[in-house]
Amino acid sequence: MNLATSTLENLQAENQELKGEIVSLQEQLDWFKRQIFGKRSEKIVLTSEENYFPGFPWTADKVSEKEKKKTMIPAHERKTANRDGQDKITWPSDLPVEKVFIDLPEDQKVCPETGVPLVKIGEEKTSKLALQPGTFYIKEIIRPKYAHPQRSEEGIKIAALPETLLTRCQADESLLAEILVKKFADHLPLNRMSEIFARQGVFISRQILCQWVMRCGEALKPLYDLMHKEILASGNVFIDETPVKMLVPGKGEAQQAFMWVLSGGNAANPAYRIYSFRPNRQHRHAAELLKGFHGVLHSDKYGAYEVLANAKQFIWCPCWVHIRRNFLEAESGDPPFRDWVLGRIQELFKLEEEAWLLSPEERLCVREQKEVPIIDNLIHSIKDRLVNGKTLPKSNFKDALGYFVSLIPYLKNYTLLPWARLDNNVAERAVRSIAVGRKNWLFVGSEDGGEAAAILFSLIQTCRAIKINPVEYLQDIMVRLMSHSSQKLHELLPDHWAQSKK
Q1: What separation in angstroms does the CA of 167 have from each of 164, 174, 180?
Q2: pLDDT single digits (tens) 96-127
Q3: Distance CA 188, CA 135 (A)
Q4: Domain boundaries, the chain
Q5: Are 408 and 379 in contact (CB under 8 A)?
Q6: 184, 187, 191, 193 alpha-carbon torsion, rounded to 10°
Q7: d(Cα 218, Cα 209) in Å, to the nearest integer?
Q8: In 3D, which of 83, 79, 63 has the Cα closest to residue 71?
Q9: Phi, psi for 259 (deg, rounded to 5)
Q10: What is the largest CA-CA distance in the chain?
C-alpha cells in the first residue's frame, strides 16, 4: 500500500467520522429547538387511509363521530364548543346557605309620579359559590373522674382516651389528615403550610409538622406492606423509577436518590400503587421490590429489569412508548424509513385502543390476528435495515434500531396475555405526582423521611386513583387502625374502605 492510498483511506475515515459528528450535533440542535419552540407531544398524525383498519367497523364509526364535532370555516377547521355540561359548576344540594338581602331604598319604593307605594311581586335570586378559610376549633375531651367516698385506696376511675394513631399528640386526626393530603396530594411544602396556619392565628413550626408526618408514615406502614403484597400477588405489575434529591447529613448539600413506583392489578388502569424510596439506583433495589414475583412485568429497558427477565423470573413486557420515542428523536437518519416505522407503531396503539373495548378473549384474538403480523413485519424490516443499510455509527437512528433489535425476544409478550399492555403508562402516570411534587418540596431530609413519604404517597395517590377523598379515608382509618384486627387489615385498604362506604 503506497502513501497516497493510505492517506486517502485516512481522509475517508476522518470524513465519515466528521459526518457522524455533524449528524449527532444536528440531532441535538433539533432536540433543543423542539424543547423551546416546537411541540413536545409524541402524538403521530397518520393519513386518513391509515386511520381505518380492516375488520374494525367501529373504528370508522368513531372517526366519523369525531368528524361530526368539527365545524368547517375558511382556511382551517375548528372543534365545536363542548356543550355536554362538563364545563358547568356543580355543588352539593346540602351546602349551607348564607342569605344576603339587597333591597331598594325606601324613597324608590314609591311611584315618583303618583306617590302610590310599589307592591312586592316576587324576588330575583342569584346564587354564588363562596368560601370561608378552613376553621380551626378545639376538640376538648372531658372525662369525669370517680372515686369511692370512703375508700381512697381503691384509686380513681376514669374512662380511657379514644384510640389514636399518634399517642400524646396535640393534633386531632382531622388535622393530621388535612396536613398529609396537602403535602402528598397538593404538593404543599411544610414550611408554606406553617405560614398558612400562622395567618389564621395558629402557630405550628415546620419541625413539629415534620415530626407528625414521619410518625404517621411509620404508623401506617402495615397498610403499605399489605398493598405491596397485593400488587405482587396480582401477577400483573408496572414499575418505574424517578430521581429525587436527599440531603446529605452534616453537609448541607443534596445527593441524588430514587423513588420507585409499582402498580398492579388486572384492570385497564390498576388502582394500587406503592412508592419505595431508595438512596440510589442499584440493581439490588429492583430485585428486592420484585422478590418472589413471577407474573408479568411492564417496564422500560433499565438493566435491572432486563437482568431479571433474562433469568426467567417473570414475563417481561418492555414499553413500546420508549421504542417509539427513540424513533421520534432519530430525525437525521432515514426519514422515510423512520416515518414508516412510526406509522406501524401507531397502528399497534390504535388497535390496542380498540382491543381494550372488547372482552379478554376477543382482545387476544385481535392481537394474534392484527398486531402480531405488524410486529413481525417491523422485526424483519428493522433487522434488515440495521444489517444491510448504511447507518452512521454515532446517530440517534442507529441507536433506535439497536434499541428495537435488543428487545426482539420480548416484543410480542404482551400479545399472549389479556391483561398485559403495550406500554408502561400506568407506572409513568404514577411517577408524575413525584415529578410535580419535587418542584415544590425540592428534596427529602433523610432516608427515614423518604421512606415515610413513600408510605404516605402510596396511600394518598391510590385514593386519588380510585377517586375517593383521601382526607376522609385517612381521618377514618387513623382512628380505627390501632384497634383493628391484623387478620382483617385488608378492610382498611382504600378500595375495600370505599366499598364498605357504599
Answers
A1: 6, 15, 17
A2: 888 888 888 888 888 888 888 888 888 888 78
A3: 19
A4: 331-419
A5: yes
A6: -80
A7: 14
A8: 79
A9: -115, 115
A10: 123
